[in-house]
């Protein structure tokens, strides 16, 4: 289960960096409400 968690963490990190570099991060942040 730990390997799965690490795998999801890496994937989330990549997605986060992509959104962070994209101007749509503001829209995502607003929709997420977080």
Structure description:
By secondary structure, the chain is mainly alpha-helical. It has helices at 2-21, 25-32. The chain is elongated, with a radius of gyration of 12 Å. The relative contact order is 0.11. The model has no long low-confidence stretch (mean pLDDT 78).
Briefly summarize what is shown:
With 34 residues, the chain is mainly alpha-helical.
Q: How many strands, what sense, and barrel or not for the largest sheet?
A: none
| Helical residues, percent | over 70%
Please indicate the count of domains. 1
SSE order in H/E notation? HH
Oligomer description? single chain
Structural class: mainly alpha
The termini sit apart by 27 Å
Low-confidence stretches: none
> Into which percentage range does the β-strand content fall?
under 5%
Mean pLDDT: 78
What is the 3D form?
Answer: elongated
Structure summary, number of beta strands: 0
Helices, by number, come to 2
Cα-atom radius of gyration: 12 Å
Q: How are the SSEs ordered, and which strands pair?
A:
Blueprint: H1 2-21, H2 25-32
Task: Name a few traits of the molecule.
34 residues, single chain, 2 helices, mainly alpha
């Amino acid at each position: 289960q730990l390997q799965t968690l690490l795998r999801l963490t890496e994937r989330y990190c990549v997605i986060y960096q992509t959104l962070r570099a994209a101007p749509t991060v503001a829209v995502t942040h607003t929709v997420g409400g977080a």
